[in-house]
Structure formats: structure tokens, C-alpha cells
Amino acid sequence: MSTIAVLGAGKIGESLLSGLINAGYSPEDLLFTERYQQRADELSERYGVRGADLPDAVRRADVLVVSVKPQDIEALLDETAEIVTPDKLVVTLCAGLPTSMFERRFAAGTPVVRVMPNTPMLVGEAMSAVSGGSHATESHLELVERMLGSVGRVVRVPENQQDAVTALSGSGPAYFFYLVEAMIDAGILLGLPRAVAAELVVQSAVGSAAMLREGEGHPVIMREGVTSPAGTTISGVRELEKHGVRAALIDAVEAAHSRSVELGAKHRQDPGESD
């Protein structure tokens, strides 16, 4: 069993720790770093996992899961660049940061795997996409897929698709929350209490997602199954089309993709380097 260190135990880092423990990993094989001592003590008490300072965690672990905000990455790299060795696997959860950036800063030959998770990791329902860097082997990718499988579903994509993944599933929960918020407001407008409107909308979303996951048909076919001739649903769908909701969602994903590309560009070696 490899020793795994989560470098940055924020919400996503904590969710991964929790998922790994629930999947059968021993707390003895896990470490985490956390800048605030009170939170570190709380995490240790909650999960039985040892907290450590950054250099100590890097030296003791076989797998280093980098789970800090992109704006904090330079400080982490400055502190660890000299002690990360090629026998360790670096797994980055940092949005927009290419594997090549880590490969340049760490010792030659260090394997790096890039992951784009999303916030449903907090409830064990993440959608994560993994991509291997220049030195990552099949066994490295399989190890990361097993790790991330403990907190949701995992797909493997070429790294040059990670900006699209970020725009679609990385940012995707926010789009769903936005739609749910609007539907709840509509229910209130129609006279329903907020709690009732929220229950109706959220459970409808959960049930619809379950139907999609079970593979009962293409979304168009499933929508048509709710849409009776001259009924209420088709009247609502007509308004959605009239107001360009479909086009707005596509534009939103494209805008998020452009921003992801922009954020990652400054971390590439040169303008021509792709993810």
C-alpha cells in the first residue's frame, strides 16, 4: 500500500481523504498538510489521519496529491521542488495547471498525473477526468483511477482536452445550481413555499439524473417522453427555446473553456506549448 499525502486539506482535499478511508485505505497510509493548526487538529480527530508539515509529508509519501488553489501553487513548488524525487507520483488537482509545469519544476523523470475533479466529491459523486504527463505510466494512471474512484466516477482523457473538461464537468455543478435556483424562484412566484419548491425541484433533478445514469435513452428521447402534445411541458420548452436557454448554456461552457485556457497559458513554457 502506497503512502498518500494530500497537500492542502481544503474541501476537496478533505473529501478525498474521507473517500479513501471509506474505500478501505488505512489512516496509517494517509497524510495531509493544512496551514491552520485548529483545522489540522479537527481533521486528525475526525479521520484519524496524521497532519504533517509540507516537507515532511513530501519526504514520507509515495503519492503526492496537490490540492491547493492555483494561486498558491508557486509557494508550494518553491518549498518542495528540491525534495520531490522521481520515485514519487505527483497527482495535481489544480485547475488549469499543465503537467509540464510540474515536470519542469521537479526532478527529471518525475511522473505527474493531472486530474480535474468537481465539487460533488463532497458527497462521493465526483466526476473526475485524469491525464498522464510525459513520465506517467499505465500503472500510475490506474492507481489514480482507483483513488478517484473512491469518491465518484473517473474517465481518462488526453491532456489537451482538460480545458474542455474544466468547462463542462468542473464548472458544471454551478450551471445546475443556477438552473435549480431559477426553478425554485419560479415555484415561489407561483405561490409555493420555498421549502416545498426546493423539495420538488431538487428531487426532480435527482430522479432525472438517475434516469440518465441508468441509460434509459438519449436526453432528447427522455424529454420527449415528458412532453405531451399541446400539454404544459411543450409550452414551457417553447419558452426556453424562445429565450435562447440552449444557446446560453453552450456559450457559458465556451466562456469557461476560454477562461481555463487563459489561466493555464501563463504556466506553459512557451505560447506554443499545449496542455
TrEMBL record:
<keyword id="KW-0641">Proline biosynthesis</keyword>
<dbReference type="InterPro" id="IPR036291">
    <property type="entry name" value="NAD(P)-bd_dom_sf"/>
</dbReference>
<dbReference type="Pfam" id="PF03807">
    <property type="entry name" value="F420_oxidored"/>
</dbReference>
<keyword id="KW-0963">Cytoplasm</keyword>
<dbReference type="Pfam" id="PF14748">
    <property type="entry name" value="P5CR_dimer"/>
</dbReference>
<feature type="domain" description="Pyrroline-5-carboxylate reductase catalytic N-terminal">
    <location>
        <begin position="3"/>
        <end position="95"/>
    </location>
</feature>
<dbReference type="GO" id="GO:0004735">
    <property type="term" value="F:pyrroline-5-carboxylate reductase activity"/>
</dbReference>
<dbReference type="InterPro" id="IPR000304">
    <property type="entry name" value="Pyrroline-COOH_reductase"/>
</dbReference>
<keyword id="KW-0028">Amino-acid biosynthesis</keyword>
<dbReference type="InterPro" id="IPR028939">
    <property type="entry name" value="P5C_Rdtase_cat_N"/>
</dbReference>
<protein>
    <recommendedName>
        <fullName>Pyrroline-5-carboxylate reductase</fullName>
        <ecNumber>1.5.1.2</ecNumber>
    </recommendedName>
</protein>
<feature type="domain" description="Pyrroline-5-carboxylate reductase dimerisation">
    <location>
        <begin position="159"/>
        <end position="263"/>
    </location>
</feature>
<dbReference type="GO" id="GO:0055129">
    <property type="term" value="P:L-proline biosynthetic process"/>
</dbReference>
<comment type="similarity">
    <text>Belongs to the pyrroline-5-carboxylate reductase family.</text>
</comment>
<comment type="pathway">
    <text>Amino-acid biosynthesis; L-proline biosynthesis; L-proline from L-glutamate 5-semialdehyde: step 1/1.</text>
</comment>
<comment type="function">
    <text>Catalyzes the reduction of 1-pyrroline-5-carboxylate (PCA) to L-proline.</text>
</comment>
<keyword id="KW-0521">NADP</keyword>
<dbReference type="GO" id="GO:0005737">
    <property type="term" value="C:cytoplasm"/>
</dbReference>
<keyword id="KW-0560">Oxidoreductase</keyword>
<dbReference type="InterPro" id="IPR008927">
    <property type="entry name" value="6-PGluconate_DH-like_C_sf"/>
</dbReference>
<dbReference type="InterPro" id="IPR029036">
    <property type="entry name" value="P5CR_dimer"/>
</dbReference>
